[in-house]
Design a protein that fits this description.
Blueprint (H helix, E strand, L loop, with lengths): L1 E3 L4 E2 H9 L5 H7 L10 H15 L1 H10 L5 H7 L3
Antiparallel strand pairs: 1-2
Length: 82
């Protein structure tokens, strides 16, 4: 699924950048050698980043939940679809 229309980034591109250590949207763009254009994809990327954080570090995930991630699980599930 396309996450960023401006740069034609798919969810697989975003996931690969996250798996390579990206922890901010700017790092995802950098990994794919592009820049943010309109910014509409940033909330979705943040959802994917938070989901990866929850999967990797339960303590950090708890802190994120307390701070209010602003990310719906359904949005993350929809983006993770192949």
């Amino acid at each position: 699924m396309i996450v960023c229309s401006c740069n034609a980034l798919s969810h697989k591109d975003v996931e690969a950048a996250i798996d390579s250590g990206a922890s901010r949207p700017a790092e995802i763009y950098s990994a794919r050698r592009c820049k943010a254009q309109c910014g509409n994809c940033v909330p979705g990327m943040l959802c994917m980043l938070r989901s990866a954080l929850r999967d990797r570090d339960p303590a950090a995930a708890a802190a994120s939940e307390r701070a209010g991630s602003g990310c719906l699980l359904a949005d993350t599930d929809r983006m993770s679809m192949s």
